[in-house]
Design a protein that fits this description.
Blueprint lengths: L13 H19 L3 H28 L5 H23 L5 H28 L2
Helix pairs in contact: 1-2, 1-4, 2-3, 3-4
């Protein structure tokens, strides 16, 4: 199974859009990984990328005084928590690709399409 990026997920901010695409690419590399060492390596890259992306996004929200910053950050924390569970299971030798697929689908369909779109609309206001 492969996770498909859809251009309808684009928010109009080139940096954020590129970071979202990279998250999908890393998730697909994890799904395609052939052994635990590769899965662990890619999962670590995905975790690092996700933390950095969320940190930049949260800094931007504070900078522009986005009114939904608290709820948006809570969404980030929920996604990171799920990624932590997946990472811990990999470390214990239990690779659950379906959990990562579900996480990425939720990230795309709920967080990007709903929460990030609200941020993009706020940023687009004159």
């Amino acid at each position: 199974m492969k996770l498909e990026w859809n251009d309808s997920y684009k928010l109009g901010d080139a940096t954020i859009d590129a970071e979202h695409v990279l998250a999908f690419e890393l998730a697909n590399r994890f799904i395609a990984a052939k052994d635990q060492a590769e899965q662990t390596s890619v999962a670590m890259q995905l975790y690092k990328h996700t933390r950095e992306h969320f940190t930049r996004e949260e800094a931007l929200m504070h900078e522009v005084k986005f009114p939904g910053v608290k709820a948006h950050t809570e969404g980030h924390n929920m996604l990171i928590g799920r990624l932590n569970v997946i990472s811990k299971s990999i470390a214990q030798g239990d690779v659950n690709k379906q959990a990562l697929i579900a996480l990425m689908n939720d990230w795309a369909m709920l967080h990007i399409v709903k929460d990030d779109a609200q941020l993009a609309a706020y940023l687009a206001k004159p």
